[in-house]
Amino acid sequence: MAEAVANVARRVNAIVEDGGDTLDLSNCKLITFPDGVFRVLKSVSDNIRVVLLAENEMKSISSKLFLNFTQLRELDLRGNIISKLPDAFLKMEHLTSINLAYNSFSIFPDKLTEIATLERINLEGNSITEIPVEKLSNMPAMKWLNVKSNPLDSNTQSALQSLNNVETES
Q1: Cα separation of 32 and 58, whole Å?
Q2: pTM for the whole structure
Q3: Can you tell me the distance from the alpha carbon of 141 to that of 88, in angstroms, rounded to the nearest whole number?
Q4: ∠ CA 79-66-93 to the nearest 5 degrees?
Q5: Mean of pLDDT values over 138-151
Q6: Which of the four pLDDT bands, split at 50, 70 and 90, describes residue 36?
Q7: Do 92 and 65 touch, CB atoms closer than 8 A?
Q8: What DSSP letter does each residue of the chain carry, written as one string?
């Protein structure tokens, strides 16, 4: 445990010192996003464009993540055990790419369809059976959707083929 905490501290301090735009806390054995990170990164939070939280053990995402890192372009949450997104996710006005592959979603997170800037959605390896194809088709920036390895019903699979200007992998 001490090693994991030290690893997170090292990575967060590097962002503050170097002024980078990417916060990489992947593979840190996190079960939640550490509140202390928000305090340490307060002075540089507007510079953070990419947050990588892949391959942790997170069951949920703190609303604080979306309220503090308002300039996010990319969010990688793959390989956790998340089953829903908080309402604060709708604050992500600049998000272009989200990776939610290999989590615990059984229902397509409709909040994704409300982010006008979103271009890429990866939901591979969840337990989703239906996709709101009509809502996805109304997303102005949407270019790529990956829903491979989900138990999609046949109607949904057929409807996905009708998405214009969106590359789908199912």
Answers
A1: 5
A2: 0.92
A3: 21
A4: 105
A5: 96
A6: confident
A7: no
A8: -HHHHHHHHHHHHHHHHHT-SEEE-TTS--SS--HHHHHHHGGGGGG--EEE--SS--SS--HHHHHH-TT-SEEE-TTS------GGGGG-TT--EEE--SS--SS--GGGGG-TT--EEE-TTS------HHHHHT-TT--EEE-TTS---HHHHHHHHT-TT-EEE-
